[in-house]
Design brief:
alpha/beta, two-stranded antiparallel ribbon, globular
Length: 306
């Protein structure tokens, strides 16, 4: 690289923090010089980590976009439904863009993001991070070299994990379609992207998918279970117990993800975490939430055999 790249971070949560940490690992390549997030605590933490000047700290991405361009690139790590608007705004300012997946929650919005980036001649990279995993790249290398033969069928499984599913898709930010997006887009876009990546230049002709919410429902709530894990008589035998997933980790000093998400708006200590579980969404019984995304889904892609 001929010079250090300057970056503005929009959304200082888990993904924004992780992507911007590249600047801490490789300070000669990248420097974070701005941050925007409505949450004071996470905004302050990222500001402190990168020593961002106060004039480049915003509680709203719109305020940052209204400024004259002051960085080379922008990392957009806002919630799913808040990807399109900042992507378009910063592309129009001619920032290069690293955009958290999914690009947007509708095909029309995705097309609009691409159109604006192309018309303003900016780089758009979407965070399909599994493409860069060594195993993924080795599979691609073997397939492209023809060492395995022609691809007739790819069978790919996304085992999210019981506690991860409970954290993200039952209690958490991706539990409800109207607030985020459907799980095939929110989670399995990684998997469909990998399949397309491995298939190379072959065109996908059609896609089918089906799934349903089969387990995390009020009908499956154990007899005698409470509304919250901290006040539940069956909690000791429940694998989805918030006490097991969060408190037991924190008691061992592990305040990183997923515990950090529970405490994102407050401090990182046992007392604060306990209070967040007592009052907030992550302490709820998994059978008594407002989740409506599917708990199991299958998808199929047909590619042009030519």
């Amino acid at each position: 690289m001929s010079r250090k790249i300057t970056v503005l971070v929009i959304g200082a949560g888990n993904r924004g923090k992780n992507y911007s940490s590249y600047a801490l690992c490789y300070p000669d390549r990248m420097k974070v010089i701005g941050v925007a997030d409505p949450r004071e605590l996470v905004r302050q933490k990222l500001q402190d980590a990168h020593q961002i000047p106060a004039e480049n700290v915003f509680d709203d991405w719109i305020a940052a976009a209204e400024r004259e361009k002051f960085a080379d690139a922008v990392i957009i790590a806002t919630p799913d439904r808040l990807h399109k608007a900042p992507a378009v705004a910063f592309a129009q300012k001619r920032y290069h863009i690293l955009l958290e997946k999914p690009m947007a929650v509708t095909a029309e919005d995705c097309i609009e993001v691409v159109r604006v980036c192309e018309s303003n001649h900016v780089i758009l990279a979407v965070c399909h991070v599994l493409r860069y995993h060594p195993v993924t790249l080795k599979i691609k290398e073997l397939l492209d070299a023809g060492l395995i033969g022609d691809i007739c069928h790819i069978q790919h499984l996304e085992p999210i994990g019981f506690w991860h599913f409970a954290h993200s898709f039952v209690r958490g930010n991706w539990r409800n379609e109207t607030e985020s997006s459907f799980s095939l887009l929110a989670k399995s876009c990684h998997d469909f992207d990998l399949i397309h990546f491995w298939m190379g230049t072959k065109r996908c002709l059609q896609v089918s998918s089906f799934g349903h919410l089969s387990h995390f429902t009020k009908e499956n709530k154990p007899k005698g279970a409470g509304h919250r894990c901290l006040d539940c008589s069956v909690e000791p035998n429940c694998p989805y117990s918030a006490q097991k997933i969060y408190l037991e980790r924190a008691e061992k000093g592990a305040f990183h993800w997923p515990v950090s998400v529970v405490c994102s708006n407050s401090g990182s200590d046992i007392e604060t975490l306990t209070e967040a579980l007592r009052l907030g969404p992550y302490g709820r019984c998994v059978y008594d939430c407002d989740n409506d995304v599917v708990s199991h889904q299958s998808g199929a892609c047909e590619f042009d055999p030519r």
